[in-house]
């Protein structure tokens, strides 16, 4: 026993090789750099936004203080992002199920490649497409909604240009579709094969197998992917800025106006100075906190999904 334990002790006490030390240092430095950059951005936004937070309410845009100024922007940002998430999630889950369980291998690979390629399209291209193509095409639909559901505040008088919050939300849904689809596809592919075969062996159809084995296993991952897509939608700037027409906040999704925080910053930052610049930076701080909270919740859900898959495997 003595002779067998000595080599093990010598191996445990052996010094680490220089390559291991260098790699560990680079990894630690990279992780620390990310935290420093994040902290630096937060510090900059907080420092430059303080004048708007402490200024006389009458000096802030709108004359009622920073809270009254940024609240409509927050509401517009949240509404457009939630609508985009509600529209994109069912479509993304359907595409992911088609790729992972229904399509032949070659077809699924091709569809997956197209979906991933959609994520590489610049946001300004989506904005121009939404303004030049989608907005005019949605005009008849907006008119139908106004005639039949006009008694609801969200479907009031429709804009003739189609540059509405609902149009921007649909464009955002197309933009976040690849994120939700990619995460959902990978989660569905990780479903234990034995669970699927057990459901089929008990006489379940393919849809029943997906409903009882695949979807319960993948639901936490789908929720995590949806939250990641929501974080992308909250921070989208150019596409929303190109589509939305300037105007005041209203609950009418078919009317002009209803700006978001990113579009407000993008449209006004180049000419802003003094207190106006501080207002926009403080609005950016609010958006930073909202996006950070959404991504933290998403990471928590993804972590829970990993623990679930380990327990069920």
Automatic annotation (TrEMBL):
<keyword id="KW-1003">Cell membrane</keyword>
<dbReference type="InterPro" id="IPR000515">
    <property type="entry name" value="MetI-like"/>
</dbReference>
<dbReference type="GO" id="GO:0005315">
    <property type="term" value="F:phosphate transmembrane transporter activity"/>
</dbReference>
<feature type="transmembrane region" description="Helical">
    <location>
        <begin position="280"/>
        <end position="302"/>
    </location>
</feature>
<dbReference type="GO" id="GO:0005886">
    <property type="term" value="C:plasma membrane"/>
</dbReference>
<feature type="domain" description="ABC transmembrane type-1">
    <location>
        <begin position="74"/>
        <end position="298"/>
    </location>
</feature>
<protein>
    <recommendedName>
        <fullName>Phosphate transport system permease protein</fullName>
    </recommendedName>
</protein>
<comment type="function">
    <text>Part of the binding-protein-dependent transport system for phosphate; probably responsible for the translocation of the substrate across the membrane.</text>
</comment>
<feature type="transmembrane region" description="Helical">
    <location>
        <begin position="111"/>
        <end position="135"/>
    </location>
</feature>
<feature type="transmembrane region" description="Helical">
    <location>
        <begin position="66"/>
        <end position="99"/>
    </location>
</feature>
<keyword id="KW-0813">Transport</keyword>
<dbReference type="InterPro" id="IPR011864">
    <property type="entry name" value="Phosphate_PstC"/>
</dbReference>
<comment type="similarity">
    <text>Belongs to the binding-protein-dependent transport system permease family. CysTW subfamily.</text>
</comment>
<keyword id="KW-0812">Transmembrane</keyword>
<dbReference type="InterPro" id="IPR035906">
    <property type="entry name" value="MetI-like_sf"/>
</dbReference>
<dbReference type="GO" id="GO:0006817">
    <property type="term" value="P:phosphate ion transport"/>
</dbReference>
<keyword id="KW-1133">Transmembrane helix</keyword>
<keyword id="KW-0472">Membrane</keyword>
<dbReference type="InterPro" id="IPR051124">
    <property type="entry name" value="Phosphate_Transport_Permease"/>
</dbReference>
<keyword id="KW-0592">Phosphate transport</keyword>
<feature type="transmembrane region" description="Helical">
    <location>
        <begin position="21"/>
        <end position="46"/>
    </location>
</feature>
<feature type="transmembrane region" description="Helical">
    <location>
        <begin position="165"/>
        <end position="183"/>
    </location>
</feature>
<dbReference type="Pfam" id="PF00528">
    <property type="entry name" value="BPD_transp_1"/>
</dbReference>
């Amino acid at each position: 026993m003595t002779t067998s334990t000595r080599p093990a002790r010598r191996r445990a006490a052996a010094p680490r090789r220089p390559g291991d030390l260098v790699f560990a240092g680079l990894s630690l430095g990279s992780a620390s750099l990310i935290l420093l950059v994040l902290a630096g951005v937060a510090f900059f936004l907080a420092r430059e936004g303080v004048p708007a937070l402490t200024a006389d309410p009458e000096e802030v845009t709108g004359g009622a203080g920073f809270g009254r100024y940024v609240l409509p922007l927050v509401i517009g940002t949240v509404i457009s992002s939630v609508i985009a998430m509600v529209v994109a999630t069912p479509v993304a889950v359907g595409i992911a199920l088609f790729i992972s369980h229904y399509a032949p291998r070659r077809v699924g690979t091709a569809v997956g490649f197209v979906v991933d390629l959609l994520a590489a399209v610049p946001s300004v291209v989506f904005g121009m497409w939404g303004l030049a193509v989608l907005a005019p095409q949605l005009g008849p639909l907006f008119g139908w909604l106004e005639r039949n559901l006009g008694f609801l505040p969200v479907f009031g008088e429709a804009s003739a240009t189609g540059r509405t919050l609902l149009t921007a939300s649909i464009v955002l849904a197309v933009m976040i579709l690849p994120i939700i689809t990619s995460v959902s596809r990978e989660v569905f592919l990780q479903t234990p094969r034995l669970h699927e075969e057990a459901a089929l062996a008990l006489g379940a159809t393919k849809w029943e197998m997906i409903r009882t084995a695949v979807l319960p296993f993948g639901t936490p991952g789908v929720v995590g992917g949806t939250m990641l897509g929501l974080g992308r939608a909250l921070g989208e700037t150019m596409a929303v800025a190109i589509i939305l027409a300037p105007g005041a906040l209203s609950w009418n999704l078919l009317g002009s106006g209803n700006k978001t925080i990113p579009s407000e910053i993008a449209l006004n930052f180049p000419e802003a100075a003094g207190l106006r610049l501080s207002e926009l930076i403080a609005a950016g701080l609010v958006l930073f906190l909202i996006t950070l909270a959404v991504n933290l919740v998403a990471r928590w859900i993804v972590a829970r999904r990993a623990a679930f898959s380990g327990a069920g495997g």
